[in-house]
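Bug #77: duplicate submission created two jobs. Keeping one. Sequence:
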Amino acid sequence: MVGLVGLFLSVFLCMIPNIAGQCLTPDAVPPNCKSWIDPVDQIPIFFQHQFNCSRFWVCEPDLSDCLHECAPKPGGGALYFDFNIDYEHGGPVCNWPYEIDCENKPEICGKCQPWEECVKCADCPDCPGCENAGDDDWTCICKEGGTCQGNNAIACGTCSNHVCEEPECCTNEDCQGAICDNGVCKGCASDNDCTNTACSTCMNHACHDPECCVDEDCNGNEYCDTDNGVCVEGCRDNSDCTAMVCSTCENHQCVDPECCIDADCLNTQFCEDNKCKDGCNEDSDCSMNGECATCNIASHQCTEPQCCNDSNCTPEFLE
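Kept job's structure:
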């Protein structure tokens, strides 16, 4: 008969959806379900009530909490929550009180977390919280050998000697700017965690700091190869190339043309498209061809007239 009642209650409680009005008004600290529900499995978690053996907490997959109470039993009172049966084994289940190792406690125990045990200091004078307390005072301790939660985002600690012993981390959320590797925070989690330079990156959970991010990180005669993050000797722009007034920076190398202006060429040459070419570019370039020789700009050739003044002509041409 006991087994049938337990089975019936198990099926009944699991099939009722968690809707407004079903949950009892909390009379103790509710569980922080975000710390207990596995985001992958999303399996409901059950907790004993802090002081009422007939009540229990359910952490739902949507991270909400709900307070339930077992059905009344013949002769008065209610059945007790069977905390030994979890969801995967058919829970939640309510059972006969004599089958459950549970003792109702004073309401002051409602201050404890659902995963904690409320004990009287007279029974545990060395327990945390009882050092300066009276024998009639109650304190909250973790359940020996059970899972507990301290400072980490999820519950992954183990209770030992009534103290919750946690690793440095349970998930990456516990590590600022790092990842959780077997309970230890290591390295970086993203590029945002690497701040030594403006372009530091996180690779395989380790920060990589390049020699440079921009040209200004390098010496004056160098530029930053941003693909590799290293400074390389070479020019950055045309202003770095000063050998000639029209020198240019191409592919980080200074390019010096043959000429920028006519003065860069021989007297018998002119500068065009940064190349020295034979010919004139102005009348003064034709002085060797006579005092009034001129430069044909179109052909860059000197034109020498038959005469410049009367003295250059014979008498028969003066009449």
